[in-house]
Amino acid sequence: MRIHGLTLLALVGCQAPGPAVHPGAPPAAAMASVAPATDTGGSAAGDLGPVQGAPIEAALTSPPVVPPPTGRKVPAKVVVNLEVRELTLPISTGVDYTFWTFGGTVPGSFIRVRQGDTLEFHLRNHPDSKMPHNIDLHAVTGPGGGAASSFTAPGHESRFTFKALNQGIFVYHCATAPVGMHVANGMYGLILVEPPEGLRRVDREFYVMQGDFYTVGKYREKGLQPFDMQKAIDEHATYVLLNGSEGALVGDNALKARVGETVRIFFGNGGPNLVSSFHVIGEIFDRVYAEGGTRYQENVQTTLVPAGGATIVEFRLEVPGTYLLVDHSIFRTFNKGALGMLKVEGAENKGIYSGKEVDSVYIADKAESDEAIATAAEGLKAGTLTTEQQIEAGGKLYAGTCSACHQAEGQGLPSVFPPLAKSDFLMADKARSIGIVLNGLSGKVTVNGADFNSVMPPMSQLNDDEVANILTFVRNRFGNTGEAVSAAEVKAVRSQTPRPPGAAH
Ligand SMILES: [Cu+2]
User: What is the pTM (predicted TM-score) of this model?
Assistant: First the structure.
């Protein structure tokens, strides 16, 4: 980011292009040997003069798309038209949630302006909305960040104007009571205030935002799930998501780039409660503009993004493959949905990395499309679920949950993991097999004449329908033939058997 004649390049030893003009900046001579304490001048230097030219309508984009650089060299009047919509959308496969959105998406539309611009903000609340809403932009200098001037009833519009005095990447959010509930329902987004000279050129820019969600049903419990106020107060997130849905950034929706390209991610955290330990598995951030500020740190593995905060990360892609965007509070990634993917195509570079292309340990059931799981969820809802649909969905879940031990074809590992393929033990007792998945198994067992004496941990974090589908799959594949297992049967075993200490529900 260029700052009044100095650029941050100066921080890494390049020559500054001109003299420091801001009175608060140290004299150039003082910067010769040490990294200079440059100063952008903050909001005091953000008024770059009166607006010039005709008003411009801001090009708003839906995540993960970022609007192009403004390319402007003078302050402009920028008109922002943002509409609040309350929409029921998938939060996970087969799970719907009524989100409250800025612009129809979670996170809301990305707004990009230049420092010194004057924003004429029009906030509309769609007539179908049930709730009033407003907006607090962290880029606003003024009490409430715009919230006081933007309270908008359904079917109404409000308007306020502000000058973007500070450069940086800022969160905006709804601040209507109960504030936590409006934020928890997805009412947040990012606004970028470019430095006067713009950001340095990169090949790709992406918009990703984390949020935590609280539903009455358990993680991945199917159907329309209402908001759970008590869980939100207790900060017991059911979902922690990137871009508002488990499917937002995986499979066909993955971010895409090519080897040799430089990527910039504007990463925000809407909260409402949790801070994010943002990490990209398989990459190192070449630059992190921590907390969305002006200075950057280099060579960073994981960066902390507070609730109501944002950061800019940049990295160059050296080798192809699938890189995973995660919250490194890692249960959130594997058990609450905080996972995105960046798929990178291009030539291998074995000198940098020799490994296999996709690391299935990490991606598991998310590697391919989850159409089968969606179809089974619809069948369950409609009461038309077939054994074939259960097998299809169960196969995907098996790959993500069981195959690490029992192996891809159910063959097991001699003396370590018993086989499920043609397993006499598995097929002898349906209710027992349900109990094994829910409660685990330890002690000596004999499967197809071979003894095992090990420990299988309980898998009770899976829902009844997930266990039913997995068991229907293993009981009808790998050389086994048996009846389907229903969610009702799993539910019965769950209620009749105690979970071992420490197991999930
Ligand atoms: Cu709201």
Answer: 0.85
